[in-house]
């Protein structure tokens, strides 16, 4: 025989609040804030997963797919973007091994930000680096080209601040492009294009007329 005093009261059971789930109110993963200027446009603040690589942030959050994911290990340099430092200098940074949060508060340029565009977004003029790459047929499949464009651009900007002697041009190009891998073996034409930019741009070489 069941003891009626131990039977649950249906009314009180219905009124009792449900116990909260152990993880109620928690995010499924840790997020970090990112505010970054990309190609002159302010982005954020945005909350992104703590482990999100910058290459994925550019592709998935901003729709900028020009930076290429090649090796995923920071070796091929197809993924590099330009980081514009507060002191006016610039450098390339590998986005496949650098978290998006690293760029919080920074200014960067991707390959999409080099050419001049009109109000509708149509390209109206290429940069000297881009133009010379075309003239020299520097690339075949083009997958590695964004990395080469950014590296060459950083080199040209450095030479505007710190010109080199003519006999140092080859070494400067090698230093700038040496880490970039081209799977179509197009290195020679990349080098020739960058040399052409350097020698045809006034002020980059100290003794170009000699």
UniProtKB/TrEMBL annotation:
Against Pfam families, the record matches this protein to: Fer2, Fer2_2
Compositional bias, Low complexity, is annotated for: 1-23
> Which superkingdom?
Bacteria
2Fe-2S ferredoxin-type domain mapped to chain residues: 32-114
Q: Which SUPFAM superfamilies match?
A: 2Fe-2S ferredoxin-like, CO dehydrogenase ISP C-domain like
Q: Where is this region: Disordered?
A: 1-30
One of the entry's Gene Ontology molecular-function terms is:
metal ion binding
For this entry, the protein name equals (2Fe-2S)-binding protein
């Amino acid at each position: 025989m069941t003891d009626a005093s131990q039977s649950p009261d249906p009314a009180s059971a219905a009124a009792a609040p449900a116990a909260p789930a152990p993880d109620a109110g928690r995010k499924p993963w840790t997020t970090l804030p990112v505010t970054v200027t990309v190609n002159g446009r302010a982005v954020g603040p945005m909350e992104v997963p703590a482990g999100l690589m910058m290459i994925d942030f550019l592709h998935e959050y901003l729709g900028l797919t020009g930076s290429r994911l090649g090796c995923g290990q920071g070796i091929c340099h197809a993924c590099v973007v330009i980081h514009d430092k507060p002191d006016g200098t610039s450098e390339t940074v590998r986005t496949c091994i650098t978290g998006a949060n690293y760029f919080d508060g920074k200014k960067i340029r991707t390959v999409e930000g080099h050419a001049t565009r009109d109000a509708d977004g149509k390209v109206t003029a290429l940069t000297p680096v881009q133009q010379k790459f075309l003239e020299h047929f520097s690339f075949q499949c083009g997958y590695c080209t964004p990395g080469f464009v950014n590296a060459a651009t950083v080199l040209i900007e450095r030479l505007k601040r710190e010109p080199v002697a003519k006999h140092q041009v080859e070494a400067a190009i090698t230093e700038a492009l040496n880490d970039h891998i081209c799977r179509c073996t197009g290195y020679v034409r990349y080098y020739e294009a960058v040399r052409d930019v350097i020698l045809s741009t006034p002020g980059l070489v100290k003794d170009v007329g000699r």
